[in-house]
User: Fold this.
Amino acid sequence: MNKTAGKIEQGVRLDKWLWAARFYKTRSLATEAINGGKIHLNGFRAKPSKEVKLNNLLRIRRSLTEMTVAVLAVSDKRGSATIAQALYAETDESIADRERLQSLRKLSASAGGFSVHKPDKRQRRKIIRFIGK
Assistant:
């Protein structure tokens, strides 16, 4: 393993790479996401200890967005955001899908939107009657 300024020529743990690439604030959050099935490495679910290598494809799901990124560099050190962005590149298909879904979400949002508060007792009864329970 030849280390030069945090960059590694071979592989690095998936949770460590996600942390270094600034997808997650901590390695434990990255590990939780991996164990929760939100991260796929080359099309398969992976474990946090799986090695990330150059040209691997990662599918990362966070809240409503899903992105596919190609690994351009491998690092085990967390740097600035500009350094972190040099570690990966999002695929063109992923960018197009993400933008399409974002525009669909904007169009489907009603003018009134969702209520800010929980339904009261009367509204809950109406909901239960409507659902038919």
User: Anything to note?
Assistant: The first strand starts at residue 3 and ends at 4. The CA atoms of residues 20 and 78 lie 4 Å apart. DSSP finds five helices and nine strands in the chain. The radius of gyration is 20 Å.
